[in-house]
Amino acid sequence: MKKGRAVLEEVTEIGAAWWVPGAHFQTTWGRFGRSRRLLAFERELLATPDGDELVLDHLTGEPGTPRVILLHGLEGSSFAVYMLGLARLIAAAGWRATAVNFRSCARDPARPRLWLPTRRPRLYHSGETTDLDLVVRTLTAREPGVPLYAIGVSIGGNVLLKWLGETGARSPIEAAATISVPYDLEAAARHLERGASRFYISFFLRTLKAKVFDLLGRFPDETRHLVVDLVRRAQTFRAFDDAATAPLHGFAGAADYYLRASSLRYLSRVEVPTFCVNSADDPFLPAEALARARAAASDDIAFQVTRRGGHAAFIAGRLPWRPRYWAEERAVAWLTGRPA
Q: E-assigned strands of 24-171?
């Protein structure tokens, strides 16, 4: 297919909520201000070839209606507020959804603050596509001919774009959308070390380190190559990825992991209609990395960039008690408006 400049839409004003000013307030408000009312998911444990399990949470509906695979962000789950928001929008459209919990991220529905440990001495990472491939093949085999779509948020979007690039025209997913993807993981890691963005690092490392220490306790032989002091002292994503993510998942180090896992390298190979939403003020991604992603993308990828919106937030609405989540609405509308 023809490769060249991706379809671009102009930088957009979304009517960002005046009562949630600035990128950091946008990014963090959802965790504290959004409803966490759970949906009636049906849980499935899908066995993996290496002896672990993937936890899938299905939003049921009319048999034969299209299904959307949902992929969450770093340390998220199917119970993340944006995942619940996307699922509600999909249900309102009369479609079904399958929320994929990355390994070590699934939560106990009765106690959503507790994550379920893995059965293997590993976690998850931003470039892990074999698990998504298993989910896609499983769902396709169960319902041949039923339209299959996907939405990925943050690193879930990175995983989705990487997988779409790996599969190219062979993709069973007919169209996809992403929100706030950090296309270049090294650039994103560097960007997060600056200024107020460092707050997010300490927030995520708290639970990531706890998961590594859990593996060290349950799998002492398989994790003896980890240097515990390096994990404990890590204060940046690069230090943590050097000490834990890379050795746990077969990378030579953080630089090797970032290079091989970044979706930026795969954007030119995407051959299904894909819609990518980003904000110019995203505290997780420098503007130059977003520009490089737009320049590298295939003609099948359309970008929409908003002036404001933060990371995986995009809160709009004139009244605090009637918020709208613009990117979620836009992504679902883009998929459901396509011929099924």
A: 42-47, 53-59, 67-71, 96-101, 107-108, 111-115, 148-153
Q: Are 300 and 274 in contact (CB under 8 A)?
A: yes
List, as own/partner pairs, every contact residues 20-23 make where C-beta atoms lie below 8 angstroms and the sequence separation is at least 24, other chains included: 20/313, 20/315, 22/281, 22/310, 23/279, 23/281, 23/282, 23/283, 23/308, 23/309, 23/310, 23/311
Note the pLDDT of residue 17.
80
Contacts of 114 by beta carbon, 8 Å cutoff, 6+ apart? 107, 108
Structural contact between residues 105 and 99, judged by C-beta atoms closer than 8 angstroms: no
Give the number of other Cβ atoms within 10 Å of residue 131's Cβ: 21
CA angle 82, 84, 86 (to 5 degrees): 70
Long-range contacts of 215-224 (CB under 8 A, 24+ apart): 215/118, 215/121, 215/122, 215/123, 215/248, 218/117, 218/121, 219/121, 222/121, 223/121, 223/248
Joined together, the tokens standing for residue 72 give: 């969450």
For the chain, which residues make up each domain, given as ranges? 7-184+264-336, 185-261
pLDDT on residue 141: 98
123: which strand partners?
A: none
Query: Can you tell me whether residue 242 is helix, strand or coil?
Result: helix
User: Which regions in the chain score pLDDT beneath 70?
Assistant: 1-11, 112, 338-340
CA distances (Å), origin 118, targets 46, 52, 115, 262, 284: 13, 7, 9, 24, 27
Q: What's the length of the chain?
A: 340
Q: Does domain 7-184+264-336 have CATH number 3.40.50.1820?
A: yes
DSSP strand pairing (42-47 vs 53-59)? antiparallel
Which contiguous run of DSSP H or E holds residue 177? strand 175-179
Which pLDDT does position 2 carry in this prediction? 36
The answer to whether 152 and 181 have CB atoms below 8 angstroms apart is yes
pLDDT of residue 339: 55
Q: What is the pTM of this model?
A: 0.94
Q: Are strands 175-179 and 315-316 parallel, antiparallel or unpaired?
A: unpaired
